[in-house]
């Protein structure tokens, strides 16, 4: 219940609609409770007394109440639906905004599939709780209370005989509800797994086909699907047992009323109309209990989902602004300094990804980072924009500790081209100016030219207005990378991070991009993560990382003389003899490698 209570704040903006819904519902309950009393009047004063006038008048009154109750029920439904849909919309928005505030570490722990379920299935479950509570959830208790009062007013003795049955029924519902929540929680966890596999396969459909792993992935999905189905069957089987049990209790109650009431009627202590009215009030008490069983399913599902939603909403981002954080001044130099920096993804000191890193990048320098796969290159550059915080040490930009400046102001100074190129649905123009929506068409074209993207864009059917399909499937890998570079350049950052961002373009195009970047980003500090030695040849400083530590740094010429690891990488990619001569020509501005 506390999990639902924490989400009740999302209902507050709709308190007027909720109040109207409850008022109409209360009126509806009063009208429903009047029907058995009117039936009693027809039997005792009309039929028994042979008074057709009372029968007709009361029948017309009952029909009028029924018609009015229909309109009231429609109004209640309209208001409750508006509240439920509004709560769902605000809840989805709150979850989305919260996820946007997550650091990379938080996103690593929450898989995409799990977050998608929370935004869809879990939100819908909580929506149903609030929506149904304004209908059945409030109507059932009111009907039970009102029916009990009228049962006692009709026949106190007969009502007392029904109390044990009502208590037993209520106890069963409580036990049933307590069992349902953990069942629904496990069911949602199985749905998490199912959606994760589905999301992975949709995103990696081409890879699955390329490696002929469709059968393997089908088996994975089938196992998760069967697991989810089996859990769903368990839940539904448990839910289905309650309704027949409660129906049996209702029938026992009706038989008891007819038997005990009949004996009292024979003795002259009750009228037939009272027996009929009492039986109707009993049904009005028991039927809400059956409705409460249905509501218990909704509540159990909603409580389990609310717990999972609160898990997201209550998560504190691993990286957040210090309470006294200040904006990074525009006058701050683009000097980046790492001092004794160590890092591990879960924040502990075991199996460090980076260890005791010391590095200084001066304004205007191009710093290349080279190393084997898994050496820690991407981990290193991810610390600069505070995607993660280091376990130990500190990182300074212009002499300011990045943990003491506001994240938005920090990121405003940094342009990033990630290892995995991500484009959004929309036009190419929109994708290039994603970080600067106010950028002019001239600035878009200039950035595209610097990224060597202008020529291929102009060959597309609509040029810069060409639509980018989902995940950029209508563009090649090299084209997507060049658009991503243009997107970073148009922000005119003071620090540029290129994480293996030219791996899909040919060496000649890469060299042209590097030439353009030197002109475009004059005075900017650039970090270039690369796998190809040709990418780093002309860097002002080359950092060689091995097993999370900087093992060498210097220029190309210096490292060829002093670093065995760099020499090994160089020889493995470019070889000896003529290849070295070509590399030297490239460094001097001659032939492209």
Descriptors:
Rossmann fold, 6-stranded mixed beta sheet, 593 residues, 4-stranded antiparallel beta sheet, alpha/beta
List the helices and strands and how they pair.
Blueprint: H1 2-7, H2 15-47, H3 52-101, H4 104-109, H5 112-133, H6 136-154, H7 156-203, H8 205-210, H9 214-267, H10 272-313, E1 336-343, E2 354-361, E3 366-371, H11 377-382, E4 392-397, E5 400-401, H12 407-412, E6 414-417, E7 426-427, H13 428-432, H14 441-450, H15 454-458, E8 467-468, H16 477-489, E9 495-499, H17 507-520, E10 525-530, H18 533-536, E11 541-546, E12 549-554, H19 556-562, H20 564-574, H21 578-587
Parallel strand pairs: 3-10, 3-11, 6-9, 9-10
Antiparallel strand pairs: 1-2, 1-4, 4-5, 7-8, 11-12
Helix pairs in contact: 2-3, 2-6, 2-10, 3-5, 5-7, 5-10, 6-7, 6-10, 7-9, 7-10, 9-10, 14-16, 19-20
Number of helices: 21
According to CATH, what is the topology of the largest domain?
ABC transporter transmembrane region fold
Number of strands: 12
Q: How does the helix and strand content classify structurally?
A: alpha/beta
Average of pLDDT: 81
The order of strands across the largest sheet is 6-9-10-3-11-12
CATH superfamily of the largest domain: ABC transporter type 1, transmembrane domain
Shape: elongated
According to CATH, what is the class of the largest domain? Mainly Alpha
Helix percent reads 55-70%
**Distance N to C terminus:** 67 Å
Major sheet characteristics: 6 strands, mixed
CATH architecture of the largest domain: Up-down Bundle
The percent range for strand residues is: 5-15%
């Amino acid at each position: 219940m506390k999990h639902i209570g924490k989400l009740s704040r999302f209902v507050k903006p709709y308190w007027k609609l909720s109040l109207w819904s409850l008022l109409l519902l209360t009126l509806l309950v009063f009208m429903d409770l009047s029907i058995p009393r009117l039936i009693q009047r027809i039997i005792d004063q009309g039929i028994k007394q042979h008074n057709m006038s009372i029968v007709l008048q009361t029948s017309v009154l009952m029909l009028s109440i029924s018609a009015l109750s229909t309109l009231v029920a429609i109004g209640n439904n309209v208001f409750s639906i508006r509240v439920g849909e509004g709560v769902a919309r605000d809840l989805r928005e709150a979850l989305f905004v919260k996820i946007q505030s997550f650091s990379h570490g938080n996103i690593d722990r929450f898989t995409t599939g799990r977050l998608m379920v929370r935004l869809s299935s879990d939100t819908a479950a909580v929506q149903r709780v609030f929506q149904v509570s304004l209908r059945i959830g409030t109507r059932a208790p009111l009907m039970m209370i009102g029916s009990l009062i009228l049962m006692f007013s009709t026949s106190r003795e007969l009502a007392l005989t029904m109390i044990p049955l009502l208590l037993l029924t209520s106890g069963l519902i409580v036990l049933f509800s307590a069992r349902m929540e953990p069942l629904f929680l496990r069911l949602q966890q199985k749905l998490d797994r199912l959606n994760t596999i589905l999301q992975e396969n949709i995103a990696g459909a081409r890879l699955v086909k390329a490696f002929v792993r469709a059968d393997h992935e089908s088996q994975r999905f089938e196992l998760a699907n069967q697991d989810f189905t089996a859990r769903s069957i368990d839940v539904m089987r448990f839910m289905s047992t309650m309704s027949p049990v409660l129906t049996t209790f209702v029938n026992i109650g009706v038989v008891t009323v007819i038997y005990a009431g009949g004996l009292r009627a024979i003795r002259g202590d009750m009228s037939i109309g009272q027996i009929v009215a009492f039986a109707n009030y009993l049904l009005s008490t028991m039927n809400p209990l059956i409705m409460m069983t249905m509501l218990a399913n909704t509540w159990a599902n909603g409580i389990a989902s609310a717990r999972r939603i609160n898990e997201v909403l209550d998560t504190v981002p691993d990286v957040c602004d210090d309470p006294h954080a200040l904006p990074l001044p525009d006058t701050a130099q683009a000097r980046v300094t790492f001092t004794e920096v160590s890092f591990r993804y879960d924040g502990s000191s075991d199996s460090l990804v980076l260890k005791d890193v010391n590095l200084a990048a001066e304004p205007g320098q191009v710093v290349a980072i080279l190393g084997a796969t898994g050496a820690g290159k991407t981990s290193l550059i991810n610390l600069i924009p505070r995607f993660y915080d280091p376990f130990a040490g500190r990182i300074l930009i212009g002499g300011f500790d990045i943990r003491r400046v506001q994240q938005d102001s920090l990121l405003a100074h940094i342009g990033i081209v990630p290892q995995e190129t991500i484009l959004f649905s929309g036009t190419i123009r929109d994708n290039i100016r994603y970080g600067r929506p106010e950028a002019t068409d001239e600035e878009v074209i200039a950035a595209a030219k610097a990224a060597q993207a202008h020529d291929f864009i102009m060959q597309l059917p609509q040029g810069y207005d060409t639509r980018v399909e989902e995940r950029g499937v209508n563009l090649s890998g090299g084209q997507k990378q060049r658009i991503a570079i243009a997107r970073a350049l148009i922000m005119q950052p003071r620090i540029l991070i290129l994480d293996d961002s030219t791996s899909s373009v040919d060496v000649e195009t890469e060299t042209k991009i590097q030439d353009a970047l030197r002109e475009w980003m004059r005075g900017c500090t650039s970090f270039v993560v690369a796998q190809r030695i040709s990418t780093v040849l002309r860097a002002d400083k080359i950092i060689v990382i091995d097993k999370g530590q900087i093992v060498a740094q210097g220029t190309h010429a210096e490292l060829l003389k002093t670093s065995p690891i760099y020499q090994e990488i160089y020889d493995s990619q470019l070889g000896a003899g003529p290849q070295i001569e070509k590399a030297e020509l490239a460094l001097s501005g001659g032939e492209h490698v």
